[in-house]
Amino acid sequence: MAEKRVLVVDDEKLIVKGIRFSLEQDNMQVDCAYDGEEALEYARNNQYDIVLLDVMLPKLTGYEVCQQIREFSNVPVIMLTAKGDDMDKILGLEYGADDYITKPFNILEVKARIKAIMRRMEPKRVMGEAAVSPKTVESGEMRLDCEGRRAYIAGKEIGLTAKEFEVLELLMLNPNKVYSRENLLQLVWGPDYPGDVRTVDVHIRRLREKIEQNPSEPKYVHTKWGVGYYFNNE
Hints:
This protein is an alpha/beta fold. It has helices spanning 13-25, 36-45, 62-69, 87-91, 107-121, 162-173, 181-189, 198-211; strands at residues 5-9, 29-33, 50-54, 77-82, 99-103, 136-139, 142-145, 150-153, 156-158, 221-224, 228-231. The protein has a 5-stranded parallel sheet with strand order 2-1-3-4-5, with helices on both faces. Strands 6-7-8-9 form a 4-stranded antiparallel sheet, covered by helices on one side. Helix 3 links the parallel strand 3 and strand 4 (77-82). The termini are far apart.
């Protein structure tokens, strides 16, 4: 298995040192940045499997860094933030973050969250045979490349975050099946995820903004009021 590469961004050098040491024990390659500009420089010039990004940074905030990374990369981003910050803001969902961890954190929790995201990024395989899900899924003008984790509408690529892609992939692979918000949270974020169902709503809203011509009258991702969400292109 190829060595995983992680970018850790925090202006508190002791925190960075601790995370780096722990991840290197798990044979991960770790780069470190201590301000927003340095973080962007690293992200532009290297390929990472995951980025750990503190919210409060010198020069550029974590939100600004995340937003700019999203202009050129769909790498999973985990925000590191102080307790008590507003949930929607913590997630940095308006900026494209995939997950968040509050400080002070247990390094084992950080590692577990990183591994969970990396597992979900790996192609799903059963007994070493072909992937369970098809390599591509198509519906009308929408096409998903499940291996490359890219989405296209009418041949044009739509920039989705890892979580947005996973939500869309799950719904597209199961058309007309209604998933409750709790169900989506469990399937996409995992049973140990500390967030609540608002996470799902914000992701669906962002997803619609990207794939729907008119997000208030969706063509692809529909709401069944009081129940949940489903995919239908008819």
